[in-house]
Structures are given as C-alpha cells and as structure tokens.
Amino acid sequence: MNIDLLLCILGMALVTLIPRVMPVTLLAGPLLTRWLSFVPVSVLAALVAPDLLLADGKLNISGDNLFLIATFPTLLICWYKKGSLFGALAVGMGTVALIRYWMT
Questions:
Q1: What are phi and psi of 61, to 5 degrees?
Q2: What is the pTM of this model?
Q3: Furthest-apart CA pair in the chain: how many Å?
C-alpha cells in the first residue's frame, strides 16, 4: 500500500472525527446534559407540528381543522394526568372520531 494513500485516509479520518468529537469534549458536563435534554421534545414537535397545522401543504389554523381541535383536549389530559400515554392517545383518537362522526 502506498504511504501517500495511507496518509490521505488518516487525514480524512481526522477531518471527519474532529468536528464530531470537539463539541462533546468541550461541552462535557452539565451544559451538555441540559442541552441534550431538549432534543427529544424538539424532534417530537418537528414531527407533529406539520400534521397539526398543515392541510394540503397550506397553513390551516381554522375551526375546520379537526386534528388541531383534537389537540386541545389531548393537551388537557396530558397536563392533568402527567405521563399517561394511553390517556392522551385515547382522548386524541376519541375526539377525532367524535368530530368525524358529527361532521358527516
């Protein structure tokens, strides 16, 4: 194997590794732990918000957006029964089902 090729591969590995390792080593401690604690909430919000607020690719915050209407009782259950995934799912799905039943 050519030594130039080996040095090139090692250089590329270092250039790839340094940007990934430096933030973790510099922020290690309570600051990193606090910063990483917000990642799951941010990812969940990024996944759920478009389904709640968009209809046919356009912003829909009107009263006929049944998913947005079902959000409010679901959030109330989430706030009242902290950590009850089943309760939130049941209320959310039940609200959507009732609204669809009444609208047709």
A1: -110, 20
A2: 0.60
A3: 74
Model confidence pLDDT, tens digit, residues 55-71: 888 898 888 888 888 99
Q: How far is CA 8 from the centre of its chain?
A: 38
- Is the per-residue pLDDT at 95 higher than 90? yes
Q: Are 72 and 52 in contact (CB under 8 A)?
A: no
> Cβ neighbours of residue 68 under 8 Å, at least 6 residues apart?
52, 53, 60, 61
Q: Output the six-digit token pair for 13.
A: 């590995």
Helix (H, G, I), strand (E, B) or coil at 29: coil
User: Could you identify the residue written with the tokens 């039940």?
Assistant: 94
Residue with tokens 């259950």: 77
Q: Is the dihedral of CA 99, 56, 44, 79 positive or negative?
A: negative
Helices 39-53, 30-37: inter-axial angle, 10-degree rounding = 20
